[in-house]
């Protein structure tokens, strides 16, 4: 009987000691969350008066404004690209015909799916290569 309690005690100690220590995380104060939410939805603070940050940073568009792209800094500090930095999440806006049945990107007939990028800034595959080769890839 004593061995049974000893075993249960050992299991309890191991289980409790393996729990994550939350002291390493800093909790966000609820009023900071509320202030951030107010700023994000305030239509008086945006570059375009009458629009809030939420107006052009919607979750449905990967928090990007696909209709009004700004110049964004690429992977190389101080180097700016001519279009928004592309991200994998932008692939949801790609035409469906370039995906196969298991959602794997296919390059078959890629020349027929122009223009390229989420804003159509490149008209041919030949224009895309120097963009990736030079500007936005880390050395």
Summary tags:
mainly alpha
Give a brief rundown of this model.
This protein is an all-alpha fold and 139 residues long.
Overview of this protein structure:
With 139 residues, this protein is mainly α. The chain folds into two domains: 30 residues, no CATH class; 78 residues, no CATH class. The protein has four helices and no strands.
Number of domains: 2
Q: Work out the number of β strands.
A: 0
The N- and C-terminal alpha carbons lie at a distance of: 66 Å
For the biggest sheet, the summary is: none
- Specify Rg, calculated over alpha carbons: 25 Å
Share of residues in strands: under 5%
Low-confidence stretches: 82-89, 135-139
> Which structural category fits the helices and strands?
mainly alpha
What form results from the Cα inertia axes? flat
Overall mean confidence score, pLDDT: 63
Number of helices: 4
- As a percent range, the share of helical residues equals 25-40%
Give the topology string: H per helix, E per strand: HHHH
């Amino acid at each position: 009987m004593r061995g049974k309690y000893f075993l249960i005690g050992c299991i309890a100690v191991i289980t409790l000691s393996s729990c994550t220590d939350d002291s390493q995380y800093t909790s966000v104060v609820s009023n900071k969350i509320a202030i951030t939410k107010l700023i994000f939805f305030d239509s008086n603070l945006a570059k375009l008066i009458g629009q809030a940050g939420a107006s052009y940073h919607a979750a449905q568009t990967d928090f990007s404004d696909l209709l009004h792209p700004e110049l964004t800094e690429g992977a190389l500090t101080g180097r700016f690209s001519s279009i928004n930095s592309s991200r994998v999440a932008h692939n949801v806006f790609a035409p469906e015909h370039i995906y196969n049945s298991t959602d794997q990107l296919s390059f078959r007939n890629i020349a027929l799916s122009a223009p390229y990028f989420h804003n159509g800034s490149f008209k041919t595959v030949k224009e895309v290569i120097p963009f990736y080769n030079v500007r936005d890839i880390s050395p």
